[in-house]
């Protein structure tokens, strides 16, 4: 087996471990891994990321459901506007982005560079949410009107559709603040949203891209094995400390991506 491909599969295992340990961050590792190590085009990499994260989150949903930590009614209601936005983004918006976004002198910002820089910006936001301390709030807030949730779901779905992310780092706080769901249950509930959004978004890609199914399925299988190991290890590792450390790593990766893409 080619050394680069072997490293890629090891990376897939690490992606699964991260998902199993902290319940998110899979796409944050998957996209850079596919682009910079395995040499995939960012559009293809974000598509593959949707399948990997969606399938992995399905396994995570089952595990959380066994513990009673999934609110299916809220998750399905919230996922409706999100998966519409994700599908439309992958089917029409991403393919419709021009190959050259703009040129300034000798510098040209291409579609691939733009997607990676946008992805890096979302990574920065995600890293801050992982690093900052969680505030304890003893007050109970009423759930907001559904039309607001619908609009917010469209926005989050569009963002995650463009960057090929599951969006767990966006959906968890949304469920806590907007749907008034406790944090632990919000994490479990977000997984069903991520599963639906990612896999439906991937369906949009299947119609526009040529998929290397043997590689993608094997990569995903290794990620799922990583999740199973990660869930087991989570019993012995502090999730809060791990989340903060991973947030710092994500921030460093985001700065690296912005530097690398800007220097091209």
UniProtKB/TrEMBL annotation:
One cellular component (GO) term of this entry: plasma membrane
InterPro entries in alphabetical order: TM_pro_TauE-like (IPR002781), TSUP/Inactive_protease-like (IPR051598)
Nucleus in keyword set: no
Keyword presence, Transferase: no
Subcellular location(s) per record: Cell membrane; Membrane
Transmembrane region(s): 7-37, 43-62, 74-93, 113-131, 151-174, 186-203, 215-236, 242-259
Keywords: Cell membrane, Membrane, Transmembrane, Transmembrane helix
PANTHER family membership: MEMBRANE TRANSPORTER PROTEIN MJ0441-RELATED (PTHR43701), MEMBRANE TRANSPORTER PROTEIN YJNA-RELATED (PTHR43701:SF2)
Protein's name in the database: Probable membrane transporter protein
Organism from which the protein derives: Flavivirga eckloniae
């Amino acid at each position: 087996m080619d050394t680069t491909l072997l490293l890629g599969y090891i990376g897939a295992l690490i992606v699964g471990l991260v998902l199993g340990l902290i319940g998110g961050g899979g796409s944050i590792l998957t996209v850079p891994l596919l682009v910079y190590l395995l040499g995939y085009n960012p559009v293809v990499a974000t598509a593959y990321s949707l399948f990997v994260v969606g399938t992995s989150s399905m396994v995570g949903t089952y595990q959380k459901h066994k513990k009673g930590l999934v609110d299916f009614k809220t998750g399905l209601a919230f996922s409706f506007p999100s998966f519409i936005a994700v599908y439309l983004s992958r089917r029409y918006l991403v393919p419709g982005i021009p190959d050259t976004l703009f040129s300034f002198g000798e510098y040209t910002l291409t579609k691939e560079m733009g997607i990676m820089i946008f992805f890096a910006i979302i990574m920065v936001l995600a890293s801050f949410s992982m690093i900052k301390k969680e505030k304890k709030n003893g007050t109970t807030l009423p759930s907001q009107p559904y039309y607001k949730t619908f609009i917010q779901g469209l926005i989050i779905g569009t963002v995650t559709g463009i960057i090929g992310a599951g969006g767990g780092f966006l959906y968890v706080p949304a469920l806590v603040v907007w749907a008034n769901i406790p944090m632990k249950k919000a994490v479990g509930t977000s997984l069903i949203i991520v599963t639906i959004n990612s896999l439906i978004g991937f369906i949009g890609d299947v119609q526009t891209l040529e998929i290397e199914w043997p590689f993608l399925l094997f990569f995903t299988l290794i990620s799922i094995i990583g999740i199973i190991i990660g869930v087991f290890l989570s019993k012995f590792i502090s999730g809060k400390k791990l989340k903060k450390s991973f947030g710092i790593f994500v921030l460093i990766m985001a700065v690296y991506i912005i530097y690398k893409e800007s220097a091209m």
